[in-house]
TrEMBL record:
Gene Ontology MF annotations: ATP binding; ATP hydrolysis activity; ATP-dependent protein folding chaperone; unfolded protein binding
Region forming the signal peptide: none
InterPro entries: HATPase_C_sf, Hsp90_fam, Hsp90_N, Ribosomal_Su5_D2-typ_SF
Gene3D superfamilies: 3.30.230.80, Histidine kinase-like ATPase, C-terminal domain
Residues annotated as transmembrane: none
Family indicated by similarity: Belongs to the heat shock protein 90 family.
UniProt key word Nucleotide-binding: yes
Disulfide bond found in the keyword field: no
Keywords: ATP-binding, Chaperone, Nucleotide-binding
Entry protein name: Heat-shock protein
Lineage, opening ranks: Bacteria, Bacillati, Actinomycetota, Actinomycetes, Micromonosporales
Pfam families linked: HATPase_c_3, HSP90
Binding residues annotated for ATP, in chain numbering: 33, 37, 77, 165
Amino acid sequence: MREELRQTEVDLGGLVSVLAAHLYSTPMVALRELVQNGHDSATRRRLEDPAAPTGRIIVRGDADTTKTGAATVSVTDEGAGLTEDEIHSYLATVGTGYTRLLRDVTGSEDLIGAFGLGFLSAFAVADEVTVHTTSHREPGRGHRYHSVGGETYAVTEAPARAPGTEVTLRLKPDYAHLADTQTLREVLTRYCALLPIPVHVEDDATPVNDVPPPWRDGGAEPMVFAARFAQRLAPLCAIPVHLDGDTEATGLLWIQDAATYGSSDNRDLSVCLRGMMLSHDARDLLPTWAGFIGGVIESTRLTPTASREDLQRDDRYRDVQKGLTEAIVNGMFEIARTQPGTWQRVLNRHGNELLGAALADDRLFDLLADDVPVPTSSGDRLTAGALRAAGNGTIHIATGDSGGFTEMLYRAMQVPIARGDHYAVLPFLRRYAVARSCPTIELGTGDGDKRLFKDAEPLPTAEQDWLTAVLTDDGEQLVPARYAPAALPLVLVPDAEVALKRRIEADETAARIPSAALALARDFTAKTDGTVAARLYLNLDNIAVRRLLQAHRDDHPGRTTAAALLRSIKVIMAATAGDHRGDLSAALVGVGSAIERLVTGDGA
Ligand SMILES: Nc1ncnc2c1ncn2[C@@H]1O[C@H](COP(=O)(O)OP(=O)(O)OP(=O)(O)O)[C@@H](O)[C@H]1O
């Protein structure tokens, strides 16, 4: 039986709503497509008539809805225009465009359009589209294309205009904001930054793209261009990109100046193709540690997705990824070498992220190890080397939330302590210690504590038991020790592993931990039985402690009062450090009653 061939029908209305709702991430894309068409048309005109002026593109917004009942945006170009036949064959035929034919014939790399689809995106934001056009081949004739919804259209004769085209969108109410002049300036400054043809908003004398990219002939200074392009976070210094090989990526990256806020991942990369913005959020092309990098690159080798807002994750994409990582690393070396003042600012601004960067890349570790500042109890400006010098050759690191006690100890010792609980600090310092063969003390781990609090000779059991009874609270283990400064009678150090175990258990109950992570976390904390939540290091070099012990040995009647006073001091110190295991009000009352007893003679 013969098959009956039938024409596949296209539900254009459906297609437009798919474009509007699903294909494009932002309605701004419609503007991009129209500006791109204006650019292509100007290129076409110059190909067909080399004597033609460069021309320009003007974008106007009219947010006043009282005149026509809707906000409007228009895009006007001085390009080749369209004859009536061309309107039917190219503008109104989905999937076909003159632009691609022209590129195939001329080989011109300046033409952007390829799919014959972009114009359709106008209907994603507008319910009505009107086009006035005069072809440079028929200067005396004008045509008006008009369509409501895009499914049907009409073409009529209209007064001739200067060669070129004006497309006017009657915006749907949801997209009326596109007509706002300031919005247009902001969006087009980014979208058109690399376009060679001047793009003006309204009657602005200066085009939005008056700062040409530095990598082109006659381009602007890199920092001038970066300052114009980086709208959110100002640039601090620039890194040029010229990737060799297959990727042919060129562009400019910059280190952002602003201290980071919110998330520290401020990677911000735009990718352009033949001058037109393809993706303004291509951050995945930058290494994850580069949260302080902004930039724009262009490459004819990256493949856009259908929406032309993103890139195919193909081999070229991965090559560009690798190339950009190299460019950033080399660029950072270059800045450190040639602009020491700027480099210092980079280190101060992005110290935290750079610690992570140093861990991710060996060369960056070498570059940064001695210069990057580490957050410490004495501020955020000390390098690992300075920490080491201040610690008499040892780097002291707080590993968890051991908090105020630790800090107090270090303040008393006048040793700055690195905040090992901050991003990347602990692994960075561990690695630094190995690379520079220097000892570290990680406070809050049994091992670290042992090195800090020198074991004292064990006390007789009776004394140990008595001190435990009068000084410790639940979960605390009394450890006789000797440490500087001698003026500090006791230090309570929570066990970092137990603290972690508690947090994990709390998170587990609250179902905040995925089960895979939980298994790992359990492995990690398995070695701790959780019975010793904190160690109370009693300083046998301290005069008050020595006298207390003596009082116990002598059966002095004031020993219990003295011990209670010391215990209250411990609880109060712990409470100021955020450790609320002891009973603070009881401790405060305890101080009062101890003094009461001492002065009335009851305690002695
Ligand atoms: N402003 C304009 N001036 C002259 N011709 C135009 C203009 N806008 C569109 N055209 C014609 O209509 C065709 C279709 O445009 P459309 O935007 O749909 O696709 P395209 O630009 O060819 O490709 P792409 O989908 O990749 O943008 C173009 O190829 C061009 O021939």
